[in-house]
Structure formats: C-alpha cells, structure tokens
Amino acid sequence: MFYLQDAQPQLLPRRQPKDGIPRRLKKGSGVGLYTFGLKMPYEEWVPLFTSPESDQLHDGAGIYSAIVGPEVTGSEFTSKYRAVTVAHCHKNLKQARAFNDRLIAADSPPFDQIKDILDNTQSVVLEVVSDTFYPEYVDPKLIPNPLLNA
Hints:
Elements: H1 4-7, E1 10-13, E2 30-38, H2 42-49, H3 52-60, E3 63-70, E4 82-90, H4 93-105, E5 118-127
Antiparallel strand pairs: 1-3, 2-4, 2-5, 3-4
C-alpha cells in the first residue's frame, strides 16, 4: 500500500489549470503506482523526470499529475539502490494500463532507456471507483505543497 507520508512525496503537476491547482481524481481515472530502485541520486533524477521531454511523454500517455518520493527506511521493497515510488494519475484506466505495459516491458523507445537507471520495478494499476473526497481526514502537514499549505 502506498502512503503519502511514508514516501515523503512531492506533487509534480503536469500542465496545471490556470489556477495552479491539480485536478482531482475522478471516478474512472487510472492510477499507476511504481516502486523501483533508482541507480542514480534522487536529486539528479527529479529534473530528468520533470524535463520538457518527459512532460511530452507523460502528456501523450494521459498523465495529468505525478506524485514521487523516496521510500523510507524499512520499506518492504528490495533493491540495492534507493527505493522511489511514483504515482501517475491518468485520465482513464485504459491509459494507465497501456503506460504500465510499455514501462514494464521496457523494450521500445523511450522506455528501453530506463533499464539503465531503474532496478526491480514493481507496479500496480488501479481504477478510481469513487470520487468522494474527505479533506477533513488529510493532515495538511503530510502534503508538502505550498499551494495546499499557504
């Protein structure tokens, strides 16, 4: 299970609405959760993950928001490299599954390059089945986002 507080997340929005606030997940949206060992320093990887080229790839896959963060010590994930978790928010489940299949196969561009930087990629694709949101249950201190904690 992916807990935001455990992963020390950063919200990395893709093409935000003019107000800067990320779109909420809605019923029928797809979510891909990926955990992997990162073979390079996290601080060097984040700019690659948020580059214009990466944005094009993510936009083309229907990804409108991403949440990333290094796993905390004691995670059950196994790799000799530092573990990182990424959550991709897709417009629908079909897009999430297609992206997952290409990333895990890593046998065609641009995904064939990730073998050089990722180790033991584990994934799960989920569908949002309800768009009910309970903000009173989310501690704003758990989400280090200046838009939410202004």
